[in-house]
Amino acid sequence: IRTGHSSTNTVPAVRATARIQNNLILTVKRANGETETIVKEGDPWTANLAKLILDVLLGGHYGGTAQAFTCKGGTTGTMISTESRGLNPSFAIGIGNGTSPFSVDDYKLANEIAFSDVPSEYISFNDNGTCYNINITQSFTVSNAVNITEIGLFIKINVLNVGTDYLLLSRDLIDPPVQLLANDTISVLYALYFPYGIPPFTKQFYGLMLNYIFCLRAYGYSISFKCTDGTSTSLSDFGIDEPYSSGGGADYVSEKLYGWLGSGSSIFGYDSYTLLNKISTTVSDTPFSLTYNATHAIFETKISHSLATANTISEVGFVIQSIDIDIAITSDIDRKTKQVLVLYFVLDNPVYVESGGTFKFKCEIVLPLAG
Predict the structure, then answer these.
(1) Residues 6 or more apart from 32 whose CB is under 8 A from it?
(2) Does the pLDDT value for residue 64 go beyond 50?
(3) Bridge-partner residues for 115, per DSSP?
(4) For residue 238, what are the contacts with CB-CB under 8 A and spacing of at least 6?
(5) How far apart are CA 92 and CA 105, in angstroms?
(6) CA-based radius of gyration for the chain
(7) Residue 8: what pLDDT?
(8) How many whole angstroms separate alpha carbon 292 and alpha carbon 299?
(9) Is the dihedral of CA 207, 59, 160, 138 positive or negative?
């Protein structure tokens, strides 16, 4: 963060960690009545998850920093389409006997032998006050003897302007293999944990991520969140926004990410939905960029914003500036676009900026993928 004309005050970039725990529980029921349970903690995520978060929630698709995700069928894209002209994502699980080592760039199983969508009765959701938990279960009965060596968690998505395909979020190798005989059943349970209340992620961020990327909307468990004007909703029409009645498939509302600066004295609040005292908005969108390796994904963005009058900056927010929350519109111009605060930073040391000075802010968000 830098301030002033001739003088510069610099502090390190703000760095935060997003934690999404992914545990895998396999239960084998033998045709002879025997039962075996295998638990694997900390299943790895693919880069597809990081790319989807970047493109949809952190401004990448409309801001020019998007990275293409690759689906099971080979489809690629940088945005999903939901609600009125799209498909709200839902879960699917695959099992296979491939042995290729895990890579964060995996987009399908090495050798799939069974694949199934997950119906609503096999999804559960819980909020214990500090953590969201989603359980996803699917069972497979084999007709012939086979060794199960890999498991994959997918979501079924409508890729904007392309079509429907499945996106691999997690793949893990099972070692030693699970040896199944004819008529044995393997039950796959993914237990996903999302600890919340950790800066800078607001309830709005989790609402959008869990409702759409982690499928709560499709299964009737949507999280309600607030727009910056206080409107409560659980809806967001990403991608094509126009109603069926008009046809043509236009994407009218661009979910671009902007930086907001404020001077309100505050502490971080998970329920925060706007700045305490907003004083300025960046003149252009501020999408995050993404780099990743075998173990981590890093999202990064910078703000450089001049202030016409002197001010002390104590809060910085990142806001999806225009989001469509009305899926029952009757014309192309009759839609409710709102603003949503997804990231909220409260500065431990507020920064004074002289009149005509420039405020510079850099932040990084780390998402562990494996390890």
Answers:
(1) none
(2) yes
(3) 94
(4) 56, 79, 80, 81, 82, 83, 86, 160, 212, 255
(5) 19
(6) 22
(7) 45
(8) 9
(9) negative
Pull the structure tokens for residue 37: 């349970």
Q: What count of Cα atoms within 13 Å lies in the side-chain half-sphere of residue 40?
A: 22
What single letter denotes the amino acid at residue 119? Answer: P
CA–CA distances in Å: residue 242 to residues 79, 159, 324, 331, 365: 16, 16, 10, 7, 33
CA distance 97 to 118: 20
Q: What angle do CA 80, 69, 367 make, to 5 degrees?
A: 100
139 DSSP β-pair partners = 187
pLDDT of 137 reads: 98
Q: What are phi and psi of 305, to 5 degrees?
A: -140, 125
For 184, the token pair is 């044995």
Tokens of 24: 């895998």
Question: How far apart (Å, rounded) are the C-alpha atoms in residues 370 and 91?
Answer: 21
Count of alpha carbons within 13 Å of 202, Cβ hemisphere only? 29
Average pLDDT on 84-113 reads 96
Collapsed DSSP state (helix, strand, coil) of residue 165? strand
Percent of the chain with pLDDT over 90: 83
- pTM here is 0.94
Which residues, listed in sequence order, are joined to residue 337 by a DSSP beta bridge? 324
For residue 17, the number of C-alpha atoms closer than 13 Å in the C-beta half-sphere is 7
Give the CA distances from residue 272 to residues 23, 56, 201, 340, in Å, rounded to whole numbers and listed in that order.
30, 21, 10, 10
Q: Which residues of 63-90 are buried (b: 16+ CB within 10 A; e: fewer)?
A: bebbbebbbbeebebbbbbbbbbbbbbb
Say how far apart CA 115 and CA 113 lie, in whole Å: 7
Contact present, 93 and 166 (Cβ < 8 Å): no
Residue 180: closest CA among 27, 43, 24, 41: 27
Spatial distance between the Cα atoms of 256 and 254, rounded to a whole number of angstroms: 6
Q: Where are the alpha helices (DSSP H) in the chain?
A: 47-52, 60-63, 203-208
What does the alpha-carbon distance between residue 342 and residue 362 come to, in Å, rounded to a whole number?
16
